[in-house]
Amino acid sequence: MKYYIDIDGTICKTDTTCKNTLEKYNNAVPIYERIHHVNKLYDDGHSITYWTARGGESGLDLEELTRNQLTLWGCKYHILLLGKPPYDIYIDDKSHNVDLFWPLVSTNSLVKKATTSCVKKGWGHETIIINNDLYCGKILHFNTGSKFSMHFHMKKRETWYVSSGEFLFRWINTANADVIEETLCVGDTITNFVGDPHQIICIKEGDIFEVSTTHFDSDSYRVGKGDSQCI
């Protein structure tokens, strides 16, 4: 079957009151429960097309931003279409309301199980346990010899716990531009504050647990490239 699926309000939440178009879409928060449903349809052999009205009213080209988000969120699809008309009411003989088709689990439900998303990276992969308006939880798995970019966040504060493996942690002291290196082993904990440039280089394959404030795709500012930018 051919499925045409909207993006905003369907597989992610966007702030409809935000007047800045780029900020509104950059700060979209994925709904992994629904992304899981779409990915299952893809895996079952159905044709998946994401169809969005992004950029229709503003005239901005948001294709690259949207593709990057779909990749980051682990979305599986065949086609991305832009140019969907910005209607108020859509009437069709085959349309479905997403809240009825894929209802989200109620917080009052006795069922608390949720789905996770695994996103491949040049340095390994990350399992996104949850990312909502309050907090984010991830498991970062690094391959031996890999690294991610030297980067910083202006909104997110994150704490890491080394569950397995061994790592070289590099960070920049912004007071004097010195690059400081520390070795991280199992049981070590590091907190990266807002504005702190930091980088991980994997010495021995392993996992880092990350807990943080809400993750936004637009909130990564790179100082130096990592393996994800070199593939």
From TrEMBL:
SUPFAM superfamilies: HAD-like (SSF56784), RmlC-like cupins (SSF51182). Gene3D superfamilies: HAD superfamily/HAD-like, Jelly Rolls. This is Uncharacterized protein. It comes from viral metagenome.
